[in-house]
Design brief:
The chain is about 45% helix and about 10% strand. By secondary structure, it is mostly helical. The chain folds into 2 domains: about 15-85, Double Stranded RNA Binding Domain (2-Layer Sandwich); about 95-175, no CATH class. The strands form 2 sheets. A 3-stranded antiparallel sheet has the order 2-3-4. The chain has a two-stranded antiparallel sheet with strand order 1-5. The protein is elongated, with a radius of gyration of 18 Å. The relative contact order is 0.12. Residues about 1-15 and about 185-190 have low confidence and may be disordered.
Length: about 190
C-alpha cells in the first residue's frame, strides 16, 4: 500500500489507511485517544452529571470524531467508531497501482451487483467508498475514466456517489480541486 494522501495531493500521514478500515473495533479503538466529557443539551439532570459524550482522536491519522447523542457512554463510543471509519474512508486517499487489480472486497461487491449497489450497512461499505474515492483521485476526478478503471458504467458510479450525501460532497470537492465542475444530481453521466 502507498502513503495516505489528502484530497489536494499532499501527504496526510504514513499509515496504510485502507488497513485501518480492516481492523476490528477494539483494535481501531486501541489506536485512539478516548476522551469522555459532559455533553450539553437536552437530557436532564443525569446528562449534566455524567461524562457520556465520547471524542476519539485517531493517533495515526489525526482525525477527530465525536458522539454525544446518547446518555450511554458505551453507545456513544460505538457511534464514534462508526464515524471514525467514515472519516477515514472519506478523507484519506491511498495511491492506486494501476497494474494491480481491484481489492478482493471490491471484486466481491461487483460480483454481487455489477451496478455497484452497496448498502451502507454492508461491512465492506466504507472500504468500497475509500477505494472508489482513491480511484477517482487517481483519475484526477474524471468520472468516466474512474468508472472505466472500476469496471462499472459512468452512470452506476455517479449513482453510487449520489446515494450518500457525504460521499457526493467529497467527490465534488475532489472534482473542484482538479478544476472540474461539480457532478449534477440529475445527470446520469460523468464528465
Amino acid at each position: 500500500m502507498g502513503r495516505a494522501i489528502d484530497q489536494a495531493g499532499g501527504s496526510s500521514g504514513s499509515g496504510p489507511s485502507r488497513s485501518w478500515l480492516d481492523l476490528a473495533d477494539a483494535d481501531l479503538l486501541a489506536q485512539c485517544a478516548v476522551d469522555a466529557y459532559r455533553a450539553s443539551g437536552p437530557g436532564g439532570q443525569k446528562r449534566s452529571k455524567t461524562s457520556s459524550a465520547v471524542r476519539l482522536r485517531h493517533r495515526p491519522s489525526g482525525l477527530i470524531v465525536t458522539a454525544s447523542e446518547s446518555r450511554s457512554q458505551h453507545e456513544n463510543r460505538i457511534r464514534a467508531l462508526r464515524r471514525l471509519r467514515e472519516a477515514i474512508a472519506l478523507n484519506l486517499r491511498m495511491r492506486i497501482d494501476p497494474d494491480t487489480g481491484p481489492p478482493e472486497f471490491f471484486s466481491a461487491a461487483l460480483a454481487r451487483d455489477s451496478s455497484l449497489r452497496v448498502n451502507r450497512r454492508h461491512p465492506d461499505y466504507w472500504r468500497i467508498v475509500q477505494y472508489v474515492l482513491d480511484v477517482l483521485f487517481h483519475c484526477r476526478a474524471r468520472a468516466g475514466e474512474a468508472a472505466d478503471a472500476l469496471g462499472v458504467s459512468t452512470g452506476h458510479l455517479v449513482r453510487f456517489l449520489r446515494n450518500d450525501p457525504k460521499l457526493w460532497a467529497h467527490a465534488n470537492r475532489l472534482r473542484q480541486a482538479f478544476g472540474h465542475d461539480s457532478l449534477r444530481r440529475g445527470k446520469r453521466s460523468g464528465d
